[in-house]
Design a protein that fits this description.
This protein is of the alpha/beta class. It contains 9 helices and 5 strands. It has one domain: 3-Layer(aba) Sandwich (Rossmann fold).
């Protein structure tokens, strides 16, 4: 895969990202450079009643950066894509919002996170949620197939953002919307800094 950042080893970057989030999944009690867990989600003002129903299996490995639902609640019957779904907390909140006539599909590149998300889904008894393995730059979904894309702290980790947004707009139905929570920077990063994998993953 090509990178928009000259000299950045994208395969190495993806391996390091997967290593980091595998650790979040397998050792959620560890302290990381970023906040994690249910208490963090509560600090971000997730809907209290919906969050309370999400199993600890998902919440203890939550590593989002903000609350995508602060941009608006989802409507019953909507079809939602959770880009970089991690342990599934956002997907399971979304599933409660869209109800039985809606659906949520989470996609993530880290197998340990997908396994945790599927366990949490079974624990909640949610039948309108599924999780698939894949990457944001090449989504395995039909065009114009979702009403809403949510994502939480994922796009900032991907160098080729043009490809990501092209894919998101491809899978969104006309009139669909993006509800993204992410990290942004206000100043340009040096070329050397752009090649520093530790800056991407930390």
């Amino acid at each position: 895969m090509q990178s928009k950042v000259v000299g950045l080893d994208v395969d190495q970057l993806k391996a390091e990202i997967s290593k980091t989030y595998t650790a979040v999944s397998c050792e959620p009690e560890r302290e990381f450079i970023f906040p994690t867990g249910r208490a963090w989600a509560q600090d971000l003002d997730y809907p209290v009643d919906l969050l309370a129903r999400v199993p600890d299996t998902a919440c203890e490995s939550f590593a989002g950066v903000a609350n995508p639902f602060s941009l608006g609640a989802l409507s019953p019957g909507e079809h939602v894509l959770d880009l970089g779904s991690g342990a599934g907390m956002d997907s399971l909140v979304a599933a409660q919002m869209v109800g039985a006539k809606g659906s949520v599909t989470g996609i993530d590149m880290t197998p340990a996170m997908l396994e945790r998300a599927r366990r949490a889904t079974d624990e909640l008894g949610a039948t309108n949620v599924r999780f698939v393995h894949g990457e944001a730059e090449s989504l395995p979904f039909e065009s114009a197939s979702v009403d809403v894309v949510i994502s939480n702290g994922v796009i900032d980790l991907i160098p080729d953002k043009d490809s990501v947004f092209a894919e998101l707009y491809r899978v969104l139905r006309p009139g669909g919307r993006l509800q993204l929570a992410d990290v942004t920077i206000q100043r340009p990063v040096s070329e050397e800094g752009q090649r520093n994998i530790d800056l991407w993953t930390g």
